[in-house]
Amino acid sequence: MLRLLKKLMYFFQNILKKEHEEFKKNTLDINEVIVLNVMDKLSNFEKNQEFLKQVSLHTLARKSQTNPKYLSKIINIHYEKNFSSYINDLRIKYLLKELQKNDELKTYTVKALAKKLGFTSTEVFSKAFKKHTGINPSTYLHSLNHR
Fold this sequence. Notes:
Low-confidence stretches: none
Number of domains: 3
CATH architecture of the largest domain: Orthogonal Bundle
């Protein structure tokens, strides 16, 4: 009986330890003033469409007057995605809005759209587009041009 109790205690201690580690991983542990300041800088970054340029975690951290680790953690927690997904999602959302009002964009090649949006390659753009919309950019453009 004592042996069973020890095993149960060990089992529950491990569960609690894992839950605590998961909780720590999903909390910022960063001064709230810093978090608010960075969130404000990210809001301006989005509003000014600076995501259309080449941007890295380090350059955005420098511009946001924080360090890359804090910026990454803030994006992970508040946006529930990593830095690359955050930037790619902003670019794809921008493109989808622009395609609704700018017919000229519908004539661009996939490669030209990727470059215009600041993607490093057509492949990265196509992958991000498909992840966001469920279809390839060429298929999407073709459907817009045949409405």
